[in-house]
Amino acid sequence: FELERSLRGALQNDELRLHYQPLVDLASGRCIGAEALLRWQSAEHGTVGPDRFIPLAEESGQIVALGTWVLHQACQQASQWRREGVLLDTIAVNLSPIQFMQRNIVQIVRDALDISGLPAACLELEITEGALMQHIAQAEETLKALRTLGVRISVDDFGTGYSSLAYLRRFALDKLKIDKSFLAGLPEDPSDSQLVQTIIALARNMQLSVLAEGVETGDQEVWLRQHGCDQCQGYLLGRPMAAAAFSDHWQAQQ
Ligand code: G
Ligand code: G
Ligand code: MN
Ligand code: NA
């Protein structure tokens, strides 16, 4: 309760920040963008991880305001970077299932693009399988409207939910993000590597691009490139970092 009360003040007190984790194209090895990840530096509680406060924000309804702030902030930052010559192709933003099901989510996304001036094609929204499969008709409609706006959609933590392949195919999607739990045993573990190959094949089959999360070793990166994965993300390629550190990281690799 204490934490929930503090969270209410976090926005006004300017205690929230976005960190940015590199997204890397496997073929070229180049950083092509970033996933925005929310951080809370609480005056009262110190650093609180999103694992703790996102569920709290979802229960209390604060996720709507937080999520809108994240969208605006990420679009502003990406747009500013692009004006400064940090030309990322992709800024990825996580949408909570509750946000995704908001009636006016399309308008909220459109506003964030309009106000920031970020091209829609640069914005990628990450939605979990669970959120997509919960209210299928509404999800389908929202995805279509977002597609019309020109933003891209990725399925986050793919493989941990229970997607119906029939619906996955019907939805307007662009990318599968393979959950990091499947990367842990790569490349040695035969069952993990079979599974990752299966997801890569599934993505190909549905004409989706595919990204592996949680890449921590060079062997994993090599294996993923050899097996036709498009992109990767993980501590090997870069930890989530503050905005200034991300733009330094970008400049250093150019
Ligand atoms: O960055 P980290 O690994 O600590 O994130 C933990 C979890 O919090 C992840 O599941 C991530 O998707 C989620 N998360 C981080 N930032 C956001 C955000 O801005 N919105 C939502 N809905 N979830 C987020
Ligand atoms: O659920 P989602 O994929 O949005 O969350 C991404 C989370 O994964 C973030 O909390 C981020 O800090 C974490 N993460 C990113 N790269 C790695 C990695 O290489 N290993 C591990 N264990 N976690 C990672
Ligand atoms: Mn994510
Ligand atoms: Na994920």
From TrEMBL:
Residues 1-254 form the EAL domain. It comes from the Bacteria. This is Diguanylate cyclase (GGDEF) domain-containing protein. The chain holds residues 348 to 601 of 603 of the full protein.
